[in-house]
Amino acid sequence: VKNLCLLSPDQIELGKMLVEMGQSHLFQQWTDPGVEDNKKKAFFAQVAKLNSSYPGGLASYIKNARELLADSKVGRNPYDGFTPSVPTGEVLSFGDDNFIKYEEAGVKEAQNAAFVLVAGGLGERLGYNGIKVALLAEATTGTCFLQLYIESILALQEGSCRLTQGTFQKDIPFVIMTSDDTHTRTLEVLESNSYFGMKPTQVKLLKQEKVACLDDNDARLALDPHNKYQIQTKPHGHGDVHSLLYSSGLLKVWLYAGLRWVLFFQDTNGLLFKAIPASLGVSATKQYQVNSLAVQRKAKEAMGGITRLTHSDGRSVVINVEYNQLDPLLRAAGHPDGDANCETGYSPFPGNINQLILELGPYIEELTKTGGAIKEFVNPKYKDASKTSFKSSTRLECMMQDYPKTLPPTARVGFTVMDKWLAYAPVKNNPEDASKVPKGNPYHSATSGEMAIYRANSLILIKAGVQVEGPVQQVFNGQEVEVWPRITWKPKWGLTFSEIKIKVRQSCSVSQRSTMVLKGRDIFLEDLSLDGALIINCIDGAEVKVGGSIQNKGWLLERINYKDTSSPEELRIRGFKINKLEQLEQTYSEPGKFILKPQC
Ligand code: UGB
Known about the structure:
By secondary structure, the chain is an alpha/beta fold. Strand 14 (305-311) and strand 15 (316-321) form a beta hairpin.
């Protein structure tokens, strides 16, 4: 009370709210006025930020925390009373007519979409010193995830205009959710690379704030152990993206601009944009308000399952159920085998890869009802079975994919299952942990993420009639992986399967040891036989026909160990570098038609 003279009326109101919410312990160690006054002002500045960045304010946060902690203490299962069943959705098979139809519909629809990348996670499991979006997706061209995503969005933007014979190209909005851990460096990567060709006005960074930590079941806020005038905070989770978008006002701007879709995706999946056109086509064709991208899932795989949950009281929702909750839920519903594969050899529940497509109109309506808030959870680490005290402070968390939990049963919620080799290869684990993954389980490492790009591109060319020599097994950083030919192309070359520019009159072949880099849009491969390295750089407006037989020493993968600090981190983390022995490289920087048909 003695310190009231230091405070503004707003700060006094916040102080009263804290005391009313049972938080007077925060002031117990305060000194008399005149001592550490600046730290007291800083305390209220932090309280004001915590209050303004949470839907309903800090009082709502404390109230929600008490309710969730009470449920957690008694071990209430959030799925009590719900019966799981397999929801309806679309299962696609790469390259067939159905897939091609959806891809074309998706590219046309892309100009009515906004893209939202959740990139606030620091990636502790990955152990990479940089931010994850700046990590190389593949070392052959040195393209990082952010560059790959931006170039993919620009390719969709151009393709959408072309396929709809649009008179002008609409700029697709791109939002990146950052956090204190990633904001500055994300901006630096964008600015130092001229936004990888995107207009700076097209990109918006929205920074998520951390939330207050909780010391006990009464939701008493935890003080920073090193500063009694600061409340301890931790990340709230990627679910923040919904309240940030809602409070940013961008959703209404997009609606008035005629947009219809918002696509949410994660920071390290180099395959994603191979799956987006068809998935967006499914959303537009099926009029899904929520479309979860999914892949075939093996039972017990560490991947959430997209599940319809129907309550005895009539409530029904289609939601991702984390894998460790799916098995007990199924057993409780009378499935004795729990999470088991069906006759297809896969789980009947599609595997969540946390890339979502939401229809904008209903999304705005829902967020208006909830104020941007979505269902949260709390996961305290109790000291003992009495569950009366915590080992360390906890906090409320939320996940992006829990958005449908608040939707009415009438909402059109579906999913799109894609071949996993085409859609999903996240980079989450450091080499040490990846090398210990049980055999047959995905490594989810920089090594496996890069090899997955080469495999996907090889399989796509095989589907297009190219004879691509199969992989060899090699070990990098303790992970045995398939090494396919190192084939990469700019998104604008092969945005969709039907746009792959290959003509096979006699035959087209690529040997396993080959590297092929197509940096341009109008590069046409025709009866090419490649055994070595071929690099084509060409501007839009140059049309290059490439054929004939190319043989040279090529580019080899040279193993390096992740502990070898003499190599750059972005190479150590994958366990190899590219040794560029010899290549045929051609650059076309003038408009025109060119033929490259060497007989070497
Ligand atoms: N992220 C944020 O932007 N802010 C945050 O506060 C936290 C994360 P992780 P996670 O891919 O298979 C998710 O850590 O959360 C971003 C799904 O929950 O990589 O453990 C972060 O930058 C899970 O159901 O993954 O698991 C990254 O882009 C499953 O789908 C993204 O959120 C899993 O991903 C995901 O953060 C998966």
